[in-house]
Amino acid sequence: MTEGAALAAAIERTRAEVAALHAELVRYGLVVWTGGNVSGRVPGADLFVIKPSGVSYEELTADDLVLCDLDGVVIPDSPGSSRSPSSDTAAHAYVYRAMPEVGGVVHTHSTYAVAWAARGEEIPCVITGMADEFGGPIPIGPFAVIGDDSIGRGIVETLRGHRSRAVLMQNHGPFTIGASARDAVKAAVMCEDAARSVHLAREAGPLIPIPQERIDHLYARYQNVYGQDGDDRR
Amino acid sequence: MTEGAALAAAIERTRAEVAALHAELVRYGLVVWTGGNVSGRVPGADLFVIKPSGVSYEELTADDLVLCDLDGVVIPDSPGSSRSPSSDTAAHAYVYRAMPEVGGVVHTHSTYAVAWAARGEEIPCVITGMADEFGGPIPIGPFAVIGDDSIGRGIVETLRGHRSRAVLMQNHGPFTIGASARDAVKAAVMCEDAARSVHLAREAGPLIPIPQERIDHLYARYQNVYGQDGDDRR
Amino acid sequence: MTEGAALAAAIERTRAEVAALHAELVRYGLVVWTGGNVSGRVPGADLFVIKPSGVSYEELTADDLVLCDLDGVVIPDSPGSSRSPSSDTAAHAYVYRAMPEVGGVVHTHSTYAVAWAARGEEIPCVITGMADEFGGPIPIGPFAVIGDDSIGRGIVETLRGHRSRAVLMQNHGPFTIGASARDAVKAAVMCEDAARSVHLAREAGPLIPIPQERIDHLYARYQNVYGQDGDDRR
Amino acid sequence: MTEGAALAAAIERTRAEVAALHAELVRYGLVVWTGGNVSGRVPGADLFVIKPSGVSYEELTADDLVLCDLDGVVIPDSPGSSRSPSSDTAAHAYVYRAMPEVGGVVHTHSTYAVAWAARGEEIPCVITGMADEFGGPIPIGPFAVIGDDSIGRGIVETLRGHRSRAVLMQNHGPFTIGASARDAVKAAVMCEDAARSVHLAREAGPLIPIPQERIDHLYARYQNVYGQDGDDRR
């Protein structure tokens, strides 16, 4: 296969994967109407694909996704290039530029995560499921509005060097990252699950902390042992 | 096409659109049993179509919708004219008469919006999704009961000149308006989403306000930039 | 048609209706596993049909329903007579004996209704939807356990002469009655909806009462005007 | 049939039953992503089958389940033996070794049960549905992390001699046991239902206790009378 054909095939696979992953946002109740998006980096290229703006999840097909370079500029004459990409495209692009290890980015306004974000309060790590998945608390990112690089910069400054793959942008909502788009979607699902469980736990009384060394132990095991060999789900 | 044929076609399109939109109320959990309704203005005519009273959402077809004039009087010998229109028809009609820019009206008893309404408390704008969609708080309308124009008047007096397309009628529930029926349904979905997120946020501690100029900026951008060109979803 | 054939046809219709109505309990999330039941009186006979005990909702067919006399005794050699009827059969039978106007009875353990029942606290009528449907608060019935007539007696003593078609049996859960099985199912759906909305409303601050004469007005209108003529949905 | 053929048939039946039961965890909202598992003892053998680690519920087939001995060691050359069993396998195995009457074990991170677990607080028995099913409060087990026998030991020490078939492991989540895998799944469903109802009840005011002799009476009746004869659902 020529290099061009290999790239075209990689773009196709990424389109199909990212389109299908939007259904997981719906299934787990993380989005209403058109308010959330998934993007995925094209392996081996400085490109990513992202949801078009304002398109419903049921109508979304692989060809609707918009192919962008790492500055968030739409690649002309590609499928979906007649559409406007998600209004969060600049934030996704910033993350891909700054964090080469990131293969996928997800943004939602999932209910309980937004509730923590509206108080600017990080989610404490008091359940073993959070220790497994995030290795500690889920942090708060700065208040930032659309229009420049401030959302992308806020995500990167908060998550770089942090165990958590999820950040709650203040007054806004969660952004999650992952080694793949699928991994970032899993982080979005588990972030909302943690936000809900800890919210409910705390409203009824004081929480029992988990000692840090136990958190460290759970996180290390989960990253290395869980799942099937060669499984990208971690 | 004659003028009569064009009108007939416009009525048919509106019937089909409004019938289908009721499924969105079910999908997003905004209604139980038969407790919510959508209406849509027929473009270019002083007419609107509305759900018949007490009919279940699964049974509802385009031909079941009731065609009314702007006084809420059923047009005789039209499909659905043997049925009673929604008991909220007078309120919808009042809105269409008073606000020519409105193309659709929705009423539900969605859970969290009703909770704010039972306290007579407006929903503060502390999340960016609300700033985008409503440009500020979602206001409370007066207590008013069925039987005269008081519900319709309360909706219009509250929403005229207000950025919000949603009003919470005290002790009752939300009414939303939009440029189209679809836009009013979107407002109903986003209103419940905001009601839920802010309810949960506040029960766990103090909220961080968003500065007014940031709200203004987000609202202006969302009204002008979001979605695809020519998209009626705003 | 002979009298015997007419009765057989009435039993068949009641079986089919009651079997189908169990799906509404599932749809509205009022039941988990096998924990809720619907019964319906056979029009023109001293008989009712009820869910068999411990059978899942997906497996339930019209022939599985158990035909009983008004003492709750299974009619021998009828379809379903090899099965044990619901363990709540004595309570349903008591209601049919004591209240000839009742055509259907429903029992669930729906979440929010159970929460009010565990505190022994009636649901105040602070939303117009409750005024429409129940004409005032939803009352609490006595603590009573299975084994004698005490549950049935508690339901009847609470609901006889009361506008509400729903009673929350203390520490137990809701029982609802109606002119038909469908009407009793509607009452179960609206009872949980009211229990949830008022629970959420009150946890965030003081509620605004609705003046009694407004409640009376709404209730009177809804009982007489809502729905289509000849509609058993009220 | 030879003894070997009978064992093979028993393994097949157990595989099919346990695979299908995972769908109940999804249906009742007890799990997100891959975070819960069911196992079932093979009748008449020192073997059990369990979910593979990190496999999604939609993809799961009977042949994917992993067959283990009572030390949790995978039986070589059996279907599914190329997969890693659930990371909770050691805990399940411990329960099967220590409690020969147990035919099924379930673990989830269901939301409300986790909330009680994060506070280390048992669920008080204030609703008759809990008295029926669990015969008293749902207890808390010790804090224990994966890596040795401590989770399995904590489950057994808490549930041995206890009426409850559910334990909330502190900071972790519920484990349930049953005479069969189906019975353990029912316990998981009813545990979350009780956790949710009692959480909501208590957040709005003081609960009415149920006298112990009434709890004893309800529990005794439910274990002996409920359901159909010969029904494994209890």
TrEMBL record, chains A, B, C, D:
Gene3D superfamilies: Class II aldolase/adducin N-terminal domain. One of its GO terms (biological process) is pentose catabolic process. Pfam families: Aldolase_II. It is an enzyme of class 5 (isomerase). The keyword Nucleotidyltransferase does not apply. Keywords: Metal-binding, Zinc. Its cofactor is Zn(2+). Its EC number is 5.1.3.4. GO terms for cellular component: cytosol. InterPro entries: Aldolase_class_II_sugar_metab, Aldolase_II/adducin_N, Aldolase_II/adducin_N_sf. It comes from the Bacteria. This is L-ribulose-5-phosphate 4-epimerase. Residues 16-199 form the Class II aldolase/adducin N-terminal domain. The keyword Transmembrane helix does not apply.
